[in-house]
Design a protein that fits this description.
alpha+beta; six-stranded antiparallel β-sheet; 27 helices; 34 strands; about 40% helix; about 25% strand; elongated
Length: about 950
């Protein structure tokens, strides 16, 4: 359904409808007779006199329907009043405007409609005389003419009532006007044309500054004596025309001499009301009204109209040459102001330059002529934004100006010209002759507006020059592309860089751009064409990336973007740019491939990976390796946040992780229990880092490594080691003891070869026993089964015992042990036995890896309340590749220098665990080939700390 539009003059039409006084009045026979006549004449069930107001159609007369009004939005009459022609709908169900209208689909099920607009005397369409039928039917020209004639009769009824009311109002107005005239101070006069006898009222005399007594005796000569001589001939002509019947009244504005000597304007109106039998005028009556102010305003208005006409003419000028337009403006301004010299100047620093001018031929002015600014009146405009107007320089305060002394210009009117709020120069008009009157406000405003218009032209010219330079320097091409309904294409404008993009000049494609399509890569052609068609149809931004042929290097990627505009001729014009993006496009494609590879690695990674929001913890992305062990579906996990995977007692660890992220922008590794979807948990190592997205959003990448299998293997290994160690210890002790007895000769002497074999077996049995002992110690430490008896104890006895125990081993190895510190008074909270074991491990390693005749140094140092026991050797040092694994179980450096050294690979791992459980630490400093320094660190006991402070 189409809602009826409002006529352009809707407000005036509604006012005219209101003036009829018909709305919401009762039925009247003078209208009902015409609706009955219409029903019979056209054999229709319904006929209406419908008046359309702002939101409804109201029925002044209705036949065949009980309703008194309907909404204007669904009315047929709302459409009918949009034109003076009849609106005929022969079948509403076939008309797109009405087929779903409620008046058609519901009661009264309207099918046929014919409406003739009803006009008032002013021509406004107030409503319709309309016919309605519930069956479709035709309506020929004769029927339409008859309907129009009946509608004309209804119109006369409407307008006759209005005329009667108007006549009554007119009579009332006449009485009111008479009372007003009698009560005002308008001058009145009565003149006997034949005798010259004249009667004036007091106000008539007052207009000229007199009393009536001062003018006595009065006659027509009194008026003639006061009237301006130049106005008398026209007055006489108008009187004769009125007497001859050519004018219905005498109406003239003339000047009359005021008592004070100035002239006042008087509006003189009169009419002959009595005529002689032979047709000569006898008695004439009229009024005088002081219209001096009106005439002054009229002159001002005429002056304004003339100024506006000039400005409008200049604005609508089709001339494209700005020089010609500015010179024409100067000529028009010079004629309007009656000042012969007009100049547009440019001011640079203290120099005044003439850019355009009009002047008499003998003026001596030339374009681009320059003068010192101080020698021109324009210097007085500096720092001001208003115009300067001087009517008579010799009588003004500027008569001492250098310009007056040099050029003698008496009258001057100028306005500053601003370009982007900066003073460009001035527009000035001048003359060597003074003016009788000051410049009017209109003249000053005219020059101000003209200066702004000229400033706009200059600014546009400067902008065009600047844009031309910018376009020349802009990479890629700027263009206008036009597509006509018949398929023709062109580039009405293209910047010079089109040659770099398409290999053609702007002139070659100005009328036909089809050659550009031949340069598009075959694989991209369809997509580019489709995008242009879609942009043309929907008038949406066109944006495309595609390849173009390049004679030198094959194909190059370009990007285009433009905004479409529908033109009056049906064509579509795009305004935009096309730029070479070959390098960036190849980089983009490489990045896309790299991102695709990273995505594949991300999805195939055996370690769970999650991307979360730093502030909320919400998941942004997860890989399959995280979903599988947790038992969550992707959508379940993405709907929650990171903390749903962590146990309830994780609060303290959570704060630690947040602190790590804030301080170092990374956290972990931490071993945590991850909560599955079913509520069970599994162990995992988590670590992560904080990053920022391109938009600045803080994010966290988190790696979640499932270590369930690793834990299971470690547990099995521990159980295996514990079981095997206990099962081996007893027989190994027996074997070692037996071999020791045999080796010592207690059971008798052995042959030399057997003795050597027994010695080797005894040594290997001792080493295997040491390995079992180390394995048991390691298992106890890791499982927490090894009990530590920690107490404040001096460290010197422990160190001395260890050194004494290894003296023999050192002598056999040809290594000297040198103690450079007596450790007296050093007290720490230690387990005597286990600390001795840790120190012995370091000392035995130092001896083992020292060269023959080498030296191992034992020393200490205090650092921030901790004591460090240092063991320094002269061995080969720690290889770089081995350093990360040096404290791991069974770790041994694999090199020619160390491969032959006996050891279990557990000593340093045991030392690490012992020191950790005592609240201390172990570490080393080493330079390959320069020896190593291993150290044990423990907090000093409080008493020791106080004593050393």
């Amino acid at each position: 359904m189409k809602t009826p539009e409002f006529p352009p003059e809707e407000r005036e039409r509604l006012s005219a409808l209101e003036r009829t006084g018909l709305l919401d009045t009762g039925p009247e026979e003078r209208f009902d007779r015409y609706t009955r006549m219409a029903c019979k004449a056209f054999n229709v069930p319904i006929a209406l006199v419908s008046l359309v107001d702002s939101n409804r159609q109201w029925f002044k007369s209705c036949q065949g329907i009980s309703a008194t009004e309907t909404s204007r939005e669904i009315s047929f009459c709302g459409h009918a009043i949009l034109s003076s022609d009849l609106l005929v709908i022969e079948d509403a169900q076939q008309d797109e405007r009405f087929k779903d209208n409620p008046l058609v689909t519901e009661d009264p099920f309207l099918r046929f409609y014919a409406g003739a607009p009803l006009h008032n005397s002013e021509g406004f369409r107030l409503g319709t005389l309309c016919l309605i039928d519930q069956a479709a039917r035709s309506f020929d020209q004769n029927e339409q003419s008859l309907l129009r004639e009946i509608a004309d009769c209804v119109e006369r009824e409407i307008n006759l009532q209005a005329a009667a009311e108007f006549y009554q109002e007119l009579k009332h107005s006449e009485r009111r006007a008479r009372a007003i005239i009698d009560g005002t101070r308008i001058g009145t006069w009565e003149w006997n044309v034949q005798t010259g006898e004249t009667v004036f009222n007091e106000r008539w005399a007052n207009i000229c500054g007199y009393t009536l007594d001062e003018l006595m005796p009065v006659s027509i000569k009194t008026w003639v004596g006061l009237a301006h001589p130049d106005d008398l001939p026209e007055s006489e002509r108008l009187l004769k025309a009125h007497f001859a019947g050519e004018l219905s009244e005498y109406d003239y504005r003339c000047r009359m001499k005021h008592k004070n000597g100035h002239w006042v304007w008087v509006h003189d109106r009169g009419q002959v009301f009595e005529w002689s039998h032979d047709g000569k005028p006898v008695m004439m009556y009229g009024t005088h009204a002081d219209v001096t102010e009106v005439m002054n305003n009229l002159n001002k208005t005429q002056q304004q109209n003339e100024a506006l006409a000039i400005l409008n003419d200049l604005a609508l000028d089709t001339e494209t040459n700005d020089d010609i337009r500015i010179e024409r403006a100067l000529r028009l301004g010079s004629d309007y102001l009656n000042l012969p010299l007009g100049i547009v100047s440019e001011i640079h620093s203290n120099v005044y330059s003439i850019q355009w001018f009009v002047a008499p031929e003998d003026s001596g002015l030339e374009q681009n002529a320059s003068f010192p600014l101080r020698d021109t009146y324009c210097s007085m405009l500096l720092g001001a934004r208003e115009s300067l107007a001087i009517a008579h320089m010799a009588k003004s305060g500027y008569r001492g100006h250098r310009c007056y002394e040099k050029f003698g210009l008496e009258s001057y009117l100028a306005a500053p010209i601003f370009i982007k709020d900066h003073l460009y120069g001035t527009l000035n008009f001048s003359s060597p002759e003074p003016r009788e009157q000051d410049f009017s406000e209109t003249e000053i405003t005219f020059v101000t507006l003209l200066a702004r218009w000229i400033g706009g032209l200059i600014e546009r010219e400067l902008s065009v020059k600047m844009l031309t330079k910018l376009v020349e320097q802009t990479p890629g091409m700027l263009y206008q592309y036009q597509l006509w309904p018949d398929g023709r294409v062109s580039f009405p404008y293209a910047s010079p860089h089109i040659e770099e993009i398409y290999g053609v000049t702007a002139e070659e494609v100005k009328d036909d751009a089809s050659v550009c399509f031949t340069k598009i890569h075959p694989d991209d052609f369809s997509a580019v064409s489709a995008s242009i068609e879609q942009s043309a149809e929907a008038l949406t931004i066109w944006h495309s990336q595609y390849r173009l042929a390049n004679g030198q290097s094959g194909w190059r990627w370009v990007e285009g973007k433009s905004s479409p505009e529908k033109m009056p001729d049906g064509s579509v014009m795009w305004h935009g740019y096309i730029a070479d993006i070959d390098e960036s496009k190849h980089t983009e494609l490489a990045l896309q491939e790299s991102e695709a590879q990273l995505r594949r690695l991300y999805e195939l990674s055996p370690i769970g990976i999650a991307l979360t929001d730093y502030r909320s913890g919400a998941f942004l992305d997860v890989n399959e390796a995280l979903l599988e062990p947790t038992g969550y579906r992707r959508e379940q996990l993405m709907a929650g946040d990171y903390w749903q995977l962590l146990p309830p007692n994780f609060e303290q660890r959570q704060q630690e992780i947040i602190a790590e992220l804030q301080a170092e922008k990374r956290f972990g590794p931490h071993e945590v229990e991850i909560v599955r979807a079913n509520g069970s948990t599994y162990p995992a190592i988590v670590r992560g880092m904080r990053i920022n997205s391109p938009s600045g959003q803080p994010l966290i990448w988190t790696l979640i490594e499932d270590i369930s299998e690793q834990k299971k293997v470690d547990r099995m290994k521990s159980e295996f080691i514990s079981t095997v160690s206990h099962e081996l210890r007893t027989p190994l002790t027996s074997i070692s003891g037996s071999l020791g007895l045999i080796e010592s000769g207690t059971l008798g002497a052995l042959p030399p070869q057997a003795e050597r074999m027994v010695s080797i077996a005894h040594r290997n049995a001792d080493q295997l026993k040491q390995l079992v002992d180390d394995l048991l110690d390691m298992e106890k430490l890791v499982s927490g089964k090894m009990t530590m008896h920690l107490q404040n104890e001096e460290m010197t006895p422990v160190i001395e015992e260890s050194i004494e125990r290894l003296k023999t081993y050192a002598l056999e190895s040809g290594v000297a042990i040198r103690v450079t510190d007596d450790f007296d008074g050093r007290i720490a909270k230690i387990d005597h036995s286990r600390f001795g074991q840790a120190f012995t491990n370091l000392l035995s390693n130092a001896i083992k890896f020292s060269p023959a005749n080498g030296q191992v140094q034992v020393s200490s140092k205090i650092d921030q309340g901790c004591i460090q026991i240092l063991v320094t050797d002269q061995g080969p040092g720690i290889p770089d590749s081995f350093r990360p694994r040096i404290f791991q179980k069974f770790a041994q450096a694999d090199s020619s220098d160390t491969r032959g050294k006996r050891g279990t690979g557990l000593g340093l791992a045991i030392t690490k665990e012992i020191m950790t459980q005592m609240g201390g630490d172990v570490g080393f400093d080493s330079e390959q080939g320069q020896g190593s320094c291993f150290w044990l660190s423990l907090p000093l006991a409080e008493t020791d700390t106080n004593s050393t402070a």
